[in-house]
Amino acid sequence: MSWLPLSFGAPMVLWGLLALPVIWWLLRLTPPKPQMEIFPPLKILARVLKREETPQQSPWWLTLLRLLMAALIVAALAEPVFNPREKLPAEGAALALVIDNDWASAADWNKRVATAERLINDAGSNGVPVVIAFTAEKPNSEIGPFDAAAALDRLRAAKPRPIPTDRPAVYARVAGVLDSLPGASVAVLADGLAAKGDEAAFNTLLSKNAARVVWASPDRLSLTGLTTADNQVDGFALTAIRAPGDPAPAQVTAGAFDDKGRRIADATLTFSPGETTATATMAVPFELRNDFASIALDGERQAGAVRVLDESSKRRRVGLLSQAEADQAQPLLSPLYYIRRALQPFADLVEPSSADLADAIPQILDQKPAMIVMADIGTIPTQVRQRLVDWVDNGGTLVRFAGSRLAAAGNDDDLLPVRLRTGERSLGGALSWTSPQPVTEFPKAGPFADLAPPTEVTVTRQVLAEPTPDIVERTWAALADGTPLVTGLKKGKGTLVLFHVTPEATWSNLPISGSFVEMLRRIVQLSRNQGAAIANAEAAATSLAPYRMISADGSLVPPTPDARPLVPGPALAVTFENPPGLYGSETGVFAHNLLEAASTLALLARPQITVPVTSIQYAFDESRNLKGALVAAALVLMLLDTLAVFWMGGLFSRRPRRAGGVATTAAILIALGALFSHADPARADDAKPGDEVAIAAISKTRIAYVLTGVPGDDSISRAGLEGLTRFLVEKTALEPGAPAGVDISKDELSFYPLIYWPIDPAAPMPSQAAIARIDAYMQQGGTVLFDTRDQFANGIGADSTSPATERLRDILGNLNVPPLEPVPSDHVLTKSFFILPEFPGRFSGSPLWVEASLDASNAENRPVRTGDGVSPIMITANDFAGAWAVDENGDPLLPTVPADPMQRIYALRAGVNIMMYMLTGNYKSDQVHVPILLERLGQ
């Protein structure tokens, strides 16, 4: 029947089953060997009467055993196959197998290999040669034809490559081989990703004597790629792409890693329904962003989901221009003196050799700077002006400082962020009614938002901007009277910035303040490198050796023997000899990534051809040949038959058997035969769903954490509890199991003595049913450790609370919370394992709140607090999990605030004390009573 997952290689042999009735008839007429007995002679003589004797028939159970054995042999000879696969069309003069082994095939490469193996095996059974070619290999690699064994060896030696396919060149080579093999079958195992020139390549391949085509391609592309990772002023801007045709929304998490592989930042990218592009920003301080070495998408094990970063995302090249002649005797009056001092620590400074702007500006632009600083330059020469405008439009950052020349030059619409009034404004002079103005708070939307305003800075002269409706949006820094101090504007891909004061300390003392350095540093971070990220301009023309390569599964590996040096330049292609990765050395590297900013993922369409096409799916071969199992079962039955014959012949007994014993033993043999031939373990299995989880939860002590639904919080919670678990194993006799993430709305909570709950206002508010389950857990002896992680987020004043604290209040409002107090100095928590005066985490300063003691005033009879039980609730704001969190190598993931290594040690010790307090309860409290008890007993 077609619905049975069983097929036979020689079905005609099954006609042999018709012989079973004949075998049954023969077995019934053939008696077994008679049992020999010795009788006394007199008894024989007494029965001397002769009668006609008939042979004893074979027992029914022995006949059935032999019939079953014959049926098994017949079925085995019929070549039975369970869950048979469809035989693939691999006939003809040859089989041409063309396989995509690019980066898009890395995720399910094993399935593709299994599918190709079936094709090659079928071709080998038909005795046809095999041509096998891979679309992401060396151009001169041998493609055959081979016999089936050699083709399998080449298939198993192949691996996915982190490069795109080269279908036109490979298909042309295969077509050339097929010229001498007319009537061959062509099998195309594609990755499902369309590329340029596919249609012409398929026409070339399939027009060359192809008798049949086997087409294998994924129905949908589940790939997600990372196309851009730009270090902008407020964070790293990320862009991810996916293939079209997926109407469902999706989320992916991107992680940033340093050069040691440690994860230091996260961001979530969300694809809207039907959208193929998602963006997000890693909003972390630029000091951390400078440590980024690579960014990868979680769960995407392919090269397109990884981007390596070079110095172009960190240090910038800055050009300096000034019309004032340098005075060697008075360097402090030079317009560029304070700018050089401010930029030298974190930028490469370049200056022209000519003082003429018509020559100086091209000289600077030829060195491809990320930023150009102009100190009091009024009119820009016409012959170089357009080139400077184009440089800004293509991503350059132009920073200009005011002065007498700029004030007299008037408006420069193309290269100034705002329109200027003619002349300058003087403050605090003898003929002025105004006084020098201080700097006010920096606007929240500008690049200086997180800097403290320089209270010591004042301005006595400035150039004024014409008031326009968008002047507020363009103001990055302002004076106390509202006039702009620094203005900025996005122009094309670049940025225009204007300081409305001079770069020397004549109009303002800003250039000699520390804020001046930080402001210029933020603007440099805002800029984008225009040239190659290498140490000097001369190295741009040299080749860079491979340093770290991106493998097909997205990991960073040492260079392969096939990798060759790379010459940096525009529009570099990813090839077999120049795979994606880092090129250079430890002193400087160049990032060569797989996907470009304009890259897209498109589905590969099956070519429309007149040749017969058979479509197959990528899958493992799950068919099982039953011939060996049936032969083994027949041998077991043959052994049972032999034992039964020996038993009936009296080999195993010296005494004659009664008929009843024979029947009983036969029943036992039949039962044994049934046990060997068929067993149904499901009938004896009384397991219930969830038993394995419960057994794993209670087999070892495990610390649990609440799954908030926020990926960053959940990963930090798990890493933190893993770090605490390691510390417990190292310092105590306790060996906890792996931390467990629990969904408080449905998971069983009673398995865990302690549940860590990080409070995040971005997480959804728990339902009333979930809060009721937490309340029941606390009432039944469990403890919940709430961590708001907002020690430095609360403002000044009683009414200034963080969103995390507000969310905690909403949760506690639905719980039966006992009276709370900060952990006193004599509480059992302070001495359950380590002696601790406080309980810091990643932050320090927040107290640890526990249930208040009922008799807190009786100090004489209370040497240790809370002697009869364990507090069901603990509250902190110090971010315990952030201090405990470690990576796979045991290195800390997050810095402490302040950066004190001992603070992390104290945080881990606090975690040990909490666990000992949870697991021992009043035992630890009773230890301090031992001297008093011994004294009362007279010992």
Task: Tell me the radius of gyration.
Answer: 41 Å
Walk across the major sheet and give the strand order. 15-14-16-17-24-23-22
Strand content: 15-25%
Query: How would you state the average pLDDT, rounded?
Result: 79
The CATH class assignment of the largest domain is Alpha Beta
Query: Number of helical runs?
Result: 23
Largest sheet data:
7 strands, mixed
What is the rounded distance between the termini? 89 Å
Shape: flat
Structural class: alpha/beta
User: Any guess at the CATH architecture of the largest domain?
Assistant: 3-Layer(aba) Sandwich
Number of domains: 5
Q: Please give the number of β-strands.
A: 37
Unreliable residue runs: 429-433, 531-541, 656-684, 858-868
Q: What proportion of the residues is helical, as a percent range?
A: 25-40%
Description:
- Keywords: Membrane, Transmembrane, Transmembrane helix.
- This is DUF4159 domain-containing protein.
- Residues 6-80 form the Aerotolerance regulator N-terminal domain.
- The chain is an alpha/beta fold and 939 residues long.
- It folds into 5 domains: 6-84 and 626-679, no CATH class; 95-221 and 603-622, Rossmann fold (3-Layer(aba) Sandwich); 222-310 and 533-602; 327-334 and 348-522, 3-Layer(aba) Sandwich (Rossmann fold), CATH 3.40.50; 693-930, Rossmann fold (3-Layer(aba) Sandwich), CATH 3.40.50.
- Strand 27 (581-585) and strand 28 (588-592) form a beta hairpin.
- Helix 1 (20-29) packs antiparallel against helix 3.
- It is flat, with a radius of gyration of 41 Å.
- 37% of the residues are buried.
